[in-house]
Amino acid sequence: MTAEPELAVVVIGCRAPASIVGSVKSLIDQGMPLEILVVNSGGGDAKSLLHDAGIDVPVIEIAKRVFVGTARNVGIVATQAPFVAFLADDCLACPGWAAARLRRHLAGTATVSSAISNSHPRNPYACAAYLALFARRLPGLPAELALRYGVSFDRRLFEEYGLFDESMRVAEDTEFLARLPPELEPAWGPEIRTIHRNETRLRGLLFDQYRRGYRSGACYIGTTGAKPFRLARNNFRDRRQIRKLARIGLSGPELSFAMRSMPIVVLALFAKSLGIYLGARDRLKNDLKKTG
User: Fold this and answer.
1) How would you class 164 by CB atoms within 10 Å of its CB: exposed for 0-12, middle for 13-18, buried for 19 or more?
2) What pTM did the predictor assign?
3) DSSP strands (E only) in 3-125
4) Domains and CATH numbers, the chain
5) What 3-state DSSP class applies to 147?
6) Hey, which residues does 85 pair with through a beta bridge?
7) Would you say residue 194 has pLDDT above 50?
8) Structural Rg of the chain based on CA atoms
């Protein structure tokens, strides 16, 4: 008899991108029973896309585009395994990703975070994207320096603390984790590595960073008292720490290529900071119109 999966993985897709096939395959290749569910929103036909690739897993299609919190919640409700993880359609699970999570959970850890690996460690633009986005989730970082994201959860936490906020465009995981008591802070799991597909061209890198910045600026201006320029300035100041974190969290050829990409990292941070400033400014203007 096949053992019942103890880990559910919700793959979150938007408009059924072709990359979701690789995301699901990386889970099938884990070599252990997993309860895999795809939640796709915003159109496209993820079921057919996966079927054409020879993959048969449950798919939930949501016609309109929804925020990640909604997709997470749909996946939580529709699965049954005692532990729940999530994988975005622009990510791949490295070998051992599921087994390492499950070992931690079965040992009594309720929340387990993960590190990020670079999809193209010898491409300077991908290296810059990697460092600009994930400098605090590098595999070699000690626990005291790492940000605890990419978290899998004991399902019982959702019964006790509720589900994810469905109104937030970004940072829904931050909001949920803030509800948990200190003793439930996610454990740092550097052996659990998720590959993020990074941009490999300068134009794509700068546009992606600007887009991410615009979204986060519009979100954070509503939750902090900081002004748009201050939010942007604080992000740009990260360049001072990224080099230090790279030297700690990377090694060998990957560190060498990362160091060479530092000038591009500055450009990436500038693009994101510009997006943060404009996103925050536009959010303030819209809020004033609504109240005026």
Assistant:
1) buried
2) 0.94
3) 7-14, 35-41, 59-62, 83-88, 91-93, 111-112, 115-118
4) 7-108+152-185 (3.90.550.10), 202-291 (no CATH)
5) coil
6) 9
7) yes
8) 19
